[in-house]
Specification:
The chain is an alpha+beta fold and 91 residues long. Helices cover 57% and strands 19% of the residues. The chain has five helices and three strands; from the N terminus they run αααββααβ.
C-alpha cells in the first residue's frame, strides 16, 4: 500500500474553498444571500442567472434604488464567489 504525502494546511484550505465555491455556483440565491444577508433575502422576490446576467427582483423600491447605487461593489463581491456573474439587473 502506498503512503500519502501529508498536505499543507494552505493546500487543504484551498481545496475546501474550491469545493464550497462550486456548490455556491449551482445556486445564485445562496451566493446573493452570502453577500447581502438574510434581511435583503426577505426583500428579494425572484433571482435568476442567465447568460452571465444576474436578474434580481426586489420588492421594496427604496431598497432597489440603494442596491442600484452600490451595484459595482455588490458585483465585485458576487464575482469572488461566482465568476459566472458578469452583470446585475435589478427589476
Amino acid at each position: 500500500m502506498r503512503k500519502l504525502k501529508p498536505k499543507k494546511v494552505s493546500e487543504l484550505l484551498l481545496e475546501f474553498y474550491k469545493k464550497v465555491q462550486q456548490k455556491q455556483k449551482k445556486d445564485p440565491l445562496s451566493t446573493w444571500i452570502s453577500v447581502l444577508g438574510k434581511q435583503i433575502e426577505n426583500e428579494t422576490e425572484h433571482i435568476s442567472l442567465t447568460k452571465g446576467i444576474l436578474y434580481v427582483e426586489i420588492k421594496n423600491p427604496y431598497l432597489k434604488n440603494d442596491l442600484s447605487n452600490g451595484k459595482k461593489e455588490i458585483l465585485n463581491k458576487l464575482q469572488i464567489l461566482d465568476p459566472r456573474i458578469l452583470k446585475i439587473i435589478f427589476k
